[in-house]
Amino acid sequence: xxxxxxxxxxxxxxxxxxxxxxxxxxxxxxxxxxxxxxxxxxxxxxxxxxxxxxxxxxxxxxxxxxxxxxxxxxxxxxxxxxxxxxxxxxxxxxxxxxxxxxxxxxxxxxxxxxxxxxxxxxxxxxxxxxxxxxxxxxxxxxxxxxxxxxxxxxxxxxxxxxxxxxxxxxxxxxxxxxxxxxxxxxxxxxxxxxxxxxxxxxxxxxxxxxxxxxxxxxxxxxxxxxxxxxxxxxxxxxxxxxxxxxxxxxxxxxxxxxxxxxxxxxxxxxxxxxxxxxxxxxxxxxxxxxxxxxxxxxxxxxxxxxxxxxxxxxxxxxxxxxxxxxxxxxxxxxxxxxxxxxxxxxxxxxxxxxxxxxxxxxxxxxxxxxxxxxxxxxxxxxxxxxxxxxxxxxxxxxxxxxxxxxxxxxxxxxxxxxxxxxxxxxxxxxxxxxxxxxxxxxxxxxxxxxxxxx
Length: 454
Description:
Layout: H1 16-21, E1 24-27, H2 38-47, H3 73-98, H4 103-121, H5 130-140, E2 143-145, E3 173-178, H6 212-220, E4 246-256, H7 262-283, E5 299-305, E6 308-317, E7 336-346, H8 350-390, H9 418-429, H10 432-453
Parallel strand pairs: 1-7, 4-5
Antiparallel strand pairs: 2-3, 3-4, 5-6, 6-7
């Protein structure tokens, strides 16, 4: 797919030279660039750890016959069934390669066999148990989007000085963190199912860091969390199109059909990675400074050029070749954005298909268990800084109608009580001063009710 939508600037380009002029590069061979920063090397070692993966139970793939290596006979039948699936994937890749399939054919192959299964495993389901559903909603669910124009990086966008004459990305497939609209669950980026409606829970504060209205307020102060500027200029994030309810990307995929298109594909993911790193750089503005730009989280990308797959890691760091190839980076901007390939596979090989699935699971686990908490921490630091600057606490998501407002009902107030109705209206209208005044007026009577219950 094309890397960007139509743009008026005819000088916009996407090649190695234009990337380097904007402080972006990529390296197909890991050793070409020299040692990576410690935090990047450590992460790559974690991502490529395929211990206990299905492929570890086989001797090799050299003869085309996978020999099961296990002493656990009860697992043999299950392993053989799973092996048959990977054989089918490899054969399908062979057919696509032999028939010189177009890009859509390869795109459907990777989506059907790798990307969509990863998403479905963590999507809220109608038949999930309460525990499973709750875990998915609060910790495991993610959004994926295809062919979204990253207009945040248009030549008139906030990062235009860092991206001279570069096309903005339009990745084929991207995994994002969802935005939860706690005021309007039907517009939430979290998939909702009738059985478990977690967005209406009074514990919605557990995901309030990704609440649409809260993110919109931070965006007004300069945070960039959406690739299409969907939160900017909005008075209420609940007015957003539900299809745009997603935030920071964490996995970018580009597809091509032939090796002749490989370099352009690599430029695409390097461009997308750099844009994500610009967002992360802004996000980490108030973070504690770490060595070697380590406070800026990395981004994982994937290129699928026909049967050949590469996984890349994008990260911020100093330029290894200062001012090379016409580079024009400012001395005030020390960060270059590097993409390095850390795994290569051939999808006509059964073992590589197995390994790719395990690697994608590792990427997902890192995103949910490491990257997401870090983003939450950075959002809290943004919120703290904005409260200091404005001398006013930023509003938090308000309780919904179904919530017991400060548990007043438990202490004897009926829902029809005029005082309770006024308090609920104050919550809904966000008139905090009025709410405090009413609470103060009723404090004595509440204490009296508590003592009576005791």
